[in-house]
Amino acid sequence: MPCAAVKRMRRERVTAIEVKASFEARWDRWLQDAMEGTSWAMSNNYFKAPTGRIVTQWPHGNALYRVLTKLLGRVSETTSRRAVPPS
């Protein structure tokens, strides 16, 4: 997904792709729930923000990450900024 998004950005001359806030909130809630009870959540480490929120880990394997980003990638996007043509 990330490579496909970058290729699409180049092809469509888009400078940014943003995630819809509703998707980000649901994704984060699901991810934080998945982290409960893991060593990342139960210890003090650099994976946590000062608020206690886990910010740098993925609790599942690469295959699930790839599937989810492929399925949710395009539908989770919002307005993209177009590159300004050179004058």
Tell me what the structure shows:
The chain has helices at 2-12, 21-35, 39-42, 62-72, and strands at 14-16, 81-82. By secondary structure, the protein is mostly helical. It starts with a helix and ends in a 5-residue tail after the last strand. The mean pLDDT is 79.
Short description:
Helix content is 47%, strand content 6%. The chain is mostly helical and 87 residues long.
Key traits:
87 residues; mainly alpha; elongated
Euclidean distance between termini CA atoms: 32 Å
Determine the strand fraction and express it as a percent band: 5-15%
Number of helices: 4
Helix amount: 40-55%
Radius of gyration: 16 Å
Q: Would you report the number of β strands? A: 2
Largest beta-sheet details: 2 strands, antiparallel
Structural class: mainly alpha
> Order of strands in the sheet with the most strands?
1-2
Structural shape = elongated
Mean pLDDT across all amino acids: 79
- The ordered H/E elements are HEHHHE
Unreliable stretches: none
